[in-house]
Specification:
The protein is 27% helix and 30% strand. It has 71 residues and is α+β, with helices and mostly antiparallel strands. It has one domain. Strand 2 (18-22) and strand 3 (28-29) form a beta hairpin. It starts with a helix and ends in a 6-residue tail after the last strand.
Length: 71
C-alpha cells in the first residue's frame, strides 16, 4: 500500500515524508475528497495501522508519513 502513495502522490519535501494528493488524472489536488480512489484506499489502510496521517495547511491537505512499513 505504501508503494501506491509513492507512485501516486507528489513528493513535497524531497524525502517522501510529506506527500501531495493527486486525482485519477495525476493532477495535484488539495483535498482527500478530490484524490484518486486508489490513493484514498491506500491512505486509509496505512492510517489505520499508524503509518500515515492527514495534515492540513494553508494550501490544503497532504499526507504525512509517520513511519514506513517495516520500521
Amino acid at each position: 500500500m505504501f508503494d501506491v502513495l509513492q507512485v501516486s502522490c507528489v513528493d513535497q519535501d524531497g524525502h517522501d515524508l510529506v506527500l501531495g494528493l493527486t486525482n485519477a488524472n495525476a493532477v495535484e489536488v488539495h483535498s482527500l475528497t478530490e484524490a484518486d480512489e486508489y490513493l484514498v484506499e491506500a491512505f486509509e489502510w496505512l492510517q489505520r495501522r499508524g503509518y500515515v496521517a492527514l495534515a492540513k495547511d494553508s494550501s490544503g491537505e497532504h499526507i504525512v508519513v509517520e513511519r514506513r512499513p517495516g520500521e
